[in-house]
Model the fold of this input.
Amino acid sequence: MTTPIASQQIGLLAQLRQDHLNIAMLLEMIEQELAAFDAGDNPDYEVMFDVMHYLNNYPDEIHHPNEDLLFQRLLDRESALRATIEKLFAEHERLAKQGYELQLLLEQIVGDAFVERAALHDKLFAYLKMFKNHIGTEEREVFSGAERVLGIRDWLALNA
Done:
């Protein structure tokens, strides 16, 4: 049986978690292309560019604003999460910056410009690692904290 609070959490939190699953699949696609790259094969740079384009737009336009609402509500209720949430806010900015830099590099490659393989590899690897760690922290610490701390009125306001 679903409790009133649990049913209200389903909206925003379920969407954020689904976004994380979708993003993880896209990161896996880039990881597979990076593995091909490491093996000396030619990765599908157009696919990588398309994935980066999505990762540079959807999270910043839809996902992160929703997370920001949740984070702010949590900051109002649970000071113990302040350091983690502030770190995540800063990571949103760093991920956006790194993502746009990668998208520009991939756009150059798709346009037949020369880009040093090692530079692209290192930037992609760092981006993937940071994004995965970022999502893990949100899931383990913040989303579980939200489930624990926020009440029905909080979830109603967040879902509104």
